[in-house]
Amino acid sequence: MTHSIPKPSVASRLTEVTTFLLGLALLIVLLAELPRDIFSPDSKRFFFVIGAIGIWRYSWWFVQALRSVWYNRRIFPRLRAEADAIGAQERPDALYVLCTSYRIEPEVSFAVYDALVREARDYGAPTTIFAAISDRTDVDVIDHVLDHNDWPDNIEIRYMFQRGDGKRSAMAEVLRAVSRCMPTERSLLVSMDGDIRLEPGTLERSLSFFMCDSELGALTTNNNAIVTGGDATKEWYDLRYAQRHLVMSSMSVSNRLLVLTGRYSAFRADLATEPSFIELVENDHVEHWRFGDFKFLSGDDKSTWFWLLKRGWRMRYIPDVYVSGFEELPDRKRFFKSTIDLMRRWYGNMLRTSGRAIKLGPRPMGIFTWWSLVDQRLSMWTTLVGPTVALLVTLFVRPSFIFAYLLWILFTRGIATLVLAWQRGRFSLLWIPLIYYNQIGGALLKTYVSFRFNRQKWSRQGISAGEPDDPLAVRRQRRMGHFIHGVCVSGMVFVLIITTGVLLPPDLVSLAILKDWGILPN
Q: Transmembrane stretches, by residue range (predicted)?
């Protein structure tokens, strides 16, 4: 049986043609205005710094890309054949589905639960769906879905109303309810968001991997985006999923992942109902020397990931199974503000968890996974080296250097876009500027959040957490964060100034001239 790949929301042809013409015009201008002496010996120190960092960063990225190809072309086909063979004969003893919804539009909820009920019915395993909902209208929608599907015999629905204090408490309540069902070692749990639509065959083609690998603790799948918004928004989401596909595939070579996405993940139910697992989901927190002890607001997928990682369980990415998310920016009319708000929350979750994972050392996860976590911390600074050097040289040495840097951006991001397009199966010219925006904007946000990662906000539920109750303590924390951040950025700029020789100290002749002009005292 063949399974079609759902089509993501993509930019229009008019937008692609316009982007091509603008890019072509920019390339012509850059080549025409590029000074002939840009590669003179005087420029070698600038190119050495940018080139050295670029070689380091892109060599690591290409290692990830090669591992991704190896996983998708060599390793995964064998795993798929084994999973399909055993999946045709076996089913889990029970399947529990945790679906959390908070103020989701009724038409989206209907599409989500209709697909879920159809999947569970066709899969055939005894299934209990725990609908963690926020409004009575959700019950009416789900009941309508069950009526529409003739109330399948193998499916039971249980409703649990959220308290409105975040997703974590709702998940913990459901996990405790699942634990009271006494799941066996052959029972599975699916955790998914209320705006994710399962495509046909999702359960059958993903859950079978647990049947043939007793050491597999959790898995996640590929994603598509059904986007409400403009062309830039559509391509921004699909680019993120293309980058996610590459990294997830690469990490699966080591039988580990860097996150278990909350959109759709599956776990062994006996692991997900361990008291320590539930406690970490509900009350995950960190003790920090400057922020004290504070509780995590979002990032439950990072908590579940860390629990499994610490205990050495395998994790796997299933690249040929897609789930489709109904995506929309918090404010459709403000692309940059909305994407920055989303990235700030995502990167905050990453930084709050990756530090303690790094402290575990390579033993429970392997050296490649451990170094990937370390690299996440390093890359937010190394990414800023290129634009910082380009800005310094343009301002203080040679204004025309900016043309060479823009050519470098077009070349390197163009190559990266081609690699991503090869693996994603589609190409968009909008990815070239969006990659650069994600890299530089993301690096700036990561460095900003790393000094303030206690500050948390969830836009959909309108709640925030992490800072002290005392306003004076809040101001002290924020001022200290600004100060440390400023010191680190200043230190980086100072090192780059010295390394590139942008502002060399004056020689004796220059000092004599300054004295003759009366600028310096005799």
A: 17-34, 46-63, 428-449, 483-504
